[in-house]
Amino acid sequence: MDSQIPTCAAPISSKNMGIEVTHRSVTYHPSIWGNYFLAYTSDVTDILAHEEQERQRLKEEVNKLLAATPDYSLHKLDLIDAIQRLGVGYHFETEIEKSLKYVYDTYNESYNKQDYDLRYFALQFRLLRQQGYYVSSDVFNKFKDCQGKFEESLISDVPGLLSLYEAAHYGVHGEEILEEALKFSVSHLRSMIHHASNPLSRQVSEALEMPIHKTLTRLGVKKFLSIYQQSCEDMLLNFAKLDFNILQKMHQKELSDITRWWKALEFGKKLPFARDRVVECYFWILSVYFEPQYSLARKLLTKKIAMTSIIDDIYDVYGTLDELALFTDAIERWDFSAIDQLPPYMKYFYKSLIDVYLEADEELGKIGKSSLVCYTIKEIKKIVRAYFKEAKWTYDGYVPTIEEYMKVALVSCGYMMLSTSSLVGMGELATKEAFEWISSEPLLVRASSKICRLMNDMVGQGFEKDMSVVECYINEKGASKEEALDVFQTQVTNAWKDINQECLHPTVVPMAVLMRVVNLARVINLLYKDTDAYKDSRTKLKGFITSTLIQPATISK
Questions:
Q1: One Pfam family this chain carries (predicted)?
Q2: 8, 257, 265, 445: which is deepest, by most CB within 10 A?
Q3: pLDDT at position 126, please?
Q4: pTM over 0.70
């Protein structure tokens, strides 16, 4: 990564020189939401006293149920799984940790028990791996025959296969048995989608589309609610629905405030070439942290990702190389006085960008940590350098090697910047040690960034810039596009194994910090699977937003 201020030969200010500049042009569809979320005023989003009272009552009842259920029973594992998948696990983190710690400490005792089936062992394995506990995948050898293959009798055990499938996604490098388990379970689950009884067939279909490990919590809640109510604890179901709706009101109010801020900036008029996606940006960040204690973090990070999206468009589809050199230099200087050198359309945006970071500085100052904002400024400078490097490649018609490209593209994808900035607004978790760790680009952050870059590139060819890792691979290796896609899909799979490994105890920073990075990878897996849902947000992304931010959970009277 270049450490000096990027420049190009004789940068020219079009305003000062009096020349007419021809900008590139790409047409994006306008915002599909407009002022929609401005309607969510306090009289709509206020949480009523009786709602909060009922939530507290049900929470206490669920807590009693947790305490009364034996830790090593299948019922306890099912209960913990349901609580987490229903999105209310954040209420019972201490209780769940205590129970799973006991399960982990006595894991070897259950290993040799013969009266537990595949579903039990796979569920136990997944819950412990989710919690950061390493348990051996050798447990699944007991379900193999003398030839080393999974037993034929498992083919008819749909709940067991489904549990095995979900567990296999928590594998790390070298766990061949989990790779075998994934192939075995996928093969047989696919063949029985149309034969399994409801609601199991729907459950199988949705799992194959998106496993639990890669599911965004709020979307997963809406799907799981309909499945869980078929055979459930009514008390837990009602609690989950009420909690979902109360949080949805909070999220609607946040998005209303952010929409108002965005509209006041008038970027639609001042920067008409850029994608107007502030609602989509909020959904992105809501998927990183939905819990109520991270309200401030969501607001600040949404503003940063929305501003970064515009910077991306300035470099990718609109700015001339001379203008981009001036803007890159201004970001390096990070001072309001740098505005004078910028063309008119950049002046207003530059000031607005710095204002967003000043707001973050102010919030960190309230808890005596304003000095930590320097880490987030350092990241925005890095990403702009990367954008400029890519722009120069495009203007020069240069196709970099895969190594050259990935060194820059892992920064330009934005996930290193978002990972660092995600700490702002997280209160006491925003320590200097946490900022230092994320800024050092550890394996977890690199893996999440790799998933972001590769999945984006694999679906984004032929739009905006032509540069992508796929093009670089084809150019360097003389391979076909299909061969390139296979290679990078394998790399995405391996990056998930890196993520799984880095989330196992002991961890350098708290799990709450790690999960922001993991959730960023999950968002990409959703939005860039098969298509670029951010670029064209009129399709599946519209449905995701409607499900999580508009449609409440239906509570029976």
A1: Terpene_synth
A2: 445
A3: 99
A4: yes
